[in-house]
């Protein structure tokens, strides 16, 4: 049976995360502190300055907790995934776990990515109960973008906060069960992040990329395995393009429908998305209808 490791992204942060992990891996914690210039443990456990939900601090924190959680799984359960994928910043954890770069190198990239993304203001909202096509019909060619296709009926929008507020009634009228603002500070994975993506591409040109992952790691940008020669471009483009999460999971399940999907770290949010995708796949397989394409 294929084992796939899944790493969550921003939005899973909470005060107290990593409490049991920090004492187990003092070397990695010290490496994180030296890389960031502040105490990652204090940020995650106490957040004395109230900045854990600020992007430039959130992303390094989530990356570190994901890395510690994976190390713990590898040490205690001898987990050896056959394929890996991560949602947004979780993609960096997947690449690090697969040996594409080291923990500290990945953290340096995340810290710079977070700094650039933190400069852009806006918001995101998860739309539950509508298909991708239905959401597109509502937003049409307006000022909002599809930031992520997480599941057959969970789509994330990004853009100016006032526009997200304004479109909520139309989404509800179209049949959305809920439109939930996300705890992020910017319109990630949308056109508004293009300047940050361009600047981050320059960072990646001189970054620690170049090693092929030991196992396949699916890119959010393409829902296909990363290759060393295109990794930098795909990571930069991820910032201002749709996260193809549902399509990535489908790609894994197409190779082995019985794949065991293991969420690393986080709060179980990916598990709910996986259940939706598996349900859709069962219905599709039984009816012989091809799953709709996801862009």
Tell the overall outline: globular
Cα(first) to Cα(last) distance is 29 Å
In what range is the share of β-strand residues?
5-15%
CATH topology of the largest domain: Malonyl-Coenzyme A Acyl Carrier Protein, domain 2
Gist of the model:
This protein is 47% helix and 12% strand.
Could you characterize what this model shows?
By secondary structure, the chain is an alpha/beta fold. It folds into two domains: 3-119 and 190-287, Malonyl-Coenzyme A Acyl Carrier Protein, domain 2 (3-Layer(aba) Sandwich); 123-181, Malonyl-CoA ACP transacylase, ACP-binding (Alpha-Beta Plaits). It has helices at 26-36, 40-45, 55-77, 90-97, 103-118, 132-139, 161-173, 194-205, 228-238, 245-255, 269-287, and strands at residues 3-7, 83-86, 123-128, 145-151, 154-159, 178-181, 260-263. The strands form two sheets. Strands 4-5-3-6 form a four-stranded antiparallel β-sheet. The protein has a three-stranded parallel β-sheet with strand order 2-1-7, with helices on both faces. Helix 1 (26-36) packs across helix 5 (103-118), helix 5 runs antiparallel to helix 8 and helix 8 (194-205) packs antiparallel against helix 9. The radius of gyration is 18 Å and the shape is globular. 46% of the residues are buried.
Q: How do the helices and strands line up, and which of them pair or pack?
A:
Layout lengths: L2 E5 L18 H11 L3 H6 L9 H23 L5 E4 L3 H8 L5 H16 L4 E6 L3 H8 L5 E7 L2 E6 L1 H13 L4 E4 L12 H12 L22 H11 L6 H11 L4 E4 L5 H19 L8
Parallel strand pairs: 1-2, 1-7
Antiparallel strand pairs: 3-5, 3-6, 4-5
Helix pairs in contact: 1-5, 3-4, 3-5, 5-8, 8-9, 10-11
Protein name: Malonyl CoA-acyl carrier protein transacylase
EC number: 2.3.1.39
Catalytic activity: holo-[ACP] + malonyl-CoA = malonyl-[ACP] + CoA
